[in-house]
Amino acid sequence: IVGAPVDVGAFGRPGARNGPDLMRAAFPFSRHPDNDDSEILVDVDFRRKYRITDLKISDLGDVVWVPGESANSFGARLSVVADRVFASGRTLVCLGGDHSVSHFTLSSALRSHERLGIVHFDAHADLAFFDGNVHHANPFTFALDDERVAVIKQVGLRTFVQKSQGVEANPKVTCVTAREVQGMTPEDVFGDLPSDIPYYMSFDVDCLSPMVAPETGTPAIGGLQYYQTLELLDYLFHHRTVVGADFV
User: Fold this and answer.
1) Residues 240, 9: Cα–Cα separation, whole Å
2) CA 162, CA 239: separation in Å to the nearest integer?
3) Does the CA dihedral 220-225-230-235 come out positive or negative?
């Protein structure tokens, strides 16, 4: 786990920089010195049990944002950490932060994998014009022309966008809109994804309904529901190999 507490790349409401600390506060698997080695963590929703000592999790802390620096400058330092995590064969989970951070962690994942698929949960396509300046609306634009990227599956899209921003504009991009997900099973949503390649998963909280996540800086009416999203994530991580992920 690495934190990316930055929202300089966001155009909406600020506050995403607080995400890493808030998400860590919700995680129950930080070990306490007084915990017995046999202590069990129970996931009540899925009726699963985990022995705390069996959880192979390392929290590397945050890449600290320097006041005044750009998303590109911050991302360059985040890339150094991400490169080392992927080079070690571990799975990177980045806690954002605004969505600009995904550009850098995904780029690192591609440097370590010859072929990669992308699963992108979002209300927006985030495929806006890219001129070298990274922000929260274009973290995946570069992937459209990267030959190492096999497929980009977007889930939860809604609102109105320009066709040039990527929705149905590139053959490697497919999407399941927030409306279409209603009534679909996880297998319906992800069944067409090749199973012989690894994946990078990016999760923007605005894919969820604002009733579930009102804190997002870019709320959009409609969206995915909490348990519906849990089922989608559970299916994805059990039926495909995910080598990196971010939550932004």
Assistant:
1) 30
2) 33
3) negative
For the chain, helix (H) and strand (E) counts, in that order, are: 6, 9
Q: Which of 129, 143, 144, 20 is nearest to 78 (CA)?
A: 20
Contact 9, 19 (CB under 8 A): no
Tokens 């992927």 locate to 86
Tell if the pTM clears 0.90, that is, is over it: yes
Phi and psi for 247 in degrees, rounded to 5?
-125, 115
Whether the CB-CB separation of 192 and 174 falls below 8 Å is answered with yes
Query: Which residues make Cβ contacts (< 8 Å) with residue 84, sequence separation at least 6?
Result: none
- Residue 178 burial (C-beta neighbours within 10 Å; 0-12, 13-18, 19+): buried
* Whether 156 contacts 216, CB under 8 Å: no
pLDDT (tens digit, 0 to 9) for every residue of the chain, 248 residues total?
Answer: 999 999 999 987 889 999 999 999 987 655 555 656 568 888 899 999 988 778 888 999 999 999 999 999 999 999 999 999 999 999 999 999 999 999 999 999 999 999 999 999 999 999 999 999 999 999 999 999 999 999 999 999 998 766 655 555 689 999 999 999 998 999 999 999 999 999 999 999 999 999 999 989 889 999 999 999 999 999 999 999 999 999 99
φ, ψ dihedrals at 117, nearest 5°: -105, 155
Q: What is the spatial distance between Cα 43 and Cα 140, in angstroms, rounded to a whole number?
A: 33
CA dist 141 and 162 (Å) reads 14
Q: Which residues does 159 contact at the CB level (< 8 Å), separation at least 6?
A: 123, 124, 220
